[in-house]
Amino acid sequence: MKTVLVTGCSSGFGLATATHFHDWGWRVIATMRTPRPELLPASDRLRVLDLDVTDLQSVAELVSAAGPIDVLVNNAGIGVMGALEGLPMETARLVFETNVLGTMALTQAFLPQFRERRSGVIVNIGSIIATKAFPLVSVYAASKAAIESFSASLALELREFDIRVSLIQPGRSAETRFGENARRLVTDGIPEAYAAFAQKVFAGMASSSAFTHPSDVAAAVWKAVHEPNSPLRIPAGADAIALTD
């Protein structure tokens, strides 16, 4: 029985992915900053462990507690929307520490066991906005663009050791905490000078019927793991797929 470790499982993409793999018979390690085991099925094939990807000690403790794994899904991240002019730099730093350095730290920590076994799959959750520009998400998009380049380079670096790397590109989701943050920032995080523009942007987003469900991302991760010849970049969700056509 194979083991998948999924980060950021308290909601959205991570929760859906952990549940999907468990439903299909995998052993699952689901991580959260504040563990909530009740969110996932009670099962001897599922463990919920705490993890703060910005804390190297927390990362080291997770690796020790997890033991051998076959697949690492780097999903933990922070979504933020708003005009750059009104965004505190401490927020920008936290976004990069979580989305970029957190992904790098966790990947680095599990690489030795993958390399020694000459097997393993690393799946990073990026975003379609890393390659398709949208307003009011400049910091978040920049962090996901970093994951885009990181994944592409890492895939070449690890091919020598038979370790595969995949990048999932979700679109916009109204069913995750990113969507909740977006709605809050419309009123709380937009400087007055940008208010009218922001209203137009979010009105346009609200009028779109195409978006990404957490189940779309879970299915894309499953594909990345089970199809060795799948492309590096896998769009997830109707809106993301439309933007890649």
Structural commentary:
With 245 residues, the protein is α/β, with parallel strands linked by helices. The chain has a single domain (3-79, 88-171, 211-244), classed as Rossmann fold. Helix content is 48%, strand content 14%. The chain has helices at residues 12-23, 56-66, 89-117, 138-158, 177-188, 195-207, 214-226, 238-244; strands at 3-6, 27-32, 46-50, 71-74, 121-125, 164-170, 233-236. The chain has a seven-stranded parallel beta sheet with strand order 3-2-1-4-5-6-7, sandwiched between helices. Helix 1 (12-23) packs across helix 7, helix 2 (56-66) runs parallel beside helix 3 (89-117) and helix 3 runs parallel beside helix 4. The longest helix has 29 residues, at 89-117. It starts with a strand and ends with a helix. Residues 181-187 have low confidence and may be disordered.
Provide the fold topology.
Elements: E1 3-6, H1 12-23, E2 27-32, E3 46-50, H2 56-66, E4 71-74, H3 89-117, E5 121-125, H4 138-158, E6 164-170, H5 177-188, H6 195-207, H7 214-226, E7 233-236, H8 238-244
Parallel strand pairs: 1-2, 1-4, 2-3, 4-5, 5-6, 6-7
Task: Give descriptors for this structure.
245 residues, seven-stranded parallel β-sheet, Rossmann fold, 8 helices, alpha/beta
Please identify which CATH superfamily we are dealing with.
NAD(P)-binding Rossmann-like Domain
Termini separation comes to: 37 Å
* Major sheet summary line: 7 strands, parallel
Question: So how many helices?
Answer: 8
Going across the major beta sheet, what is the strand order?
A: 3-2-1-4-5-6-7
**What is the third-level CATH name, the topology?**
Rossmann fold
The CATH class is: Alpha Beta
Q: Number of DSSP strands?
A: 7
Give the helix level as a range of percent: 40-55%
Q: What is the average of the pLDDT values?
A: 91
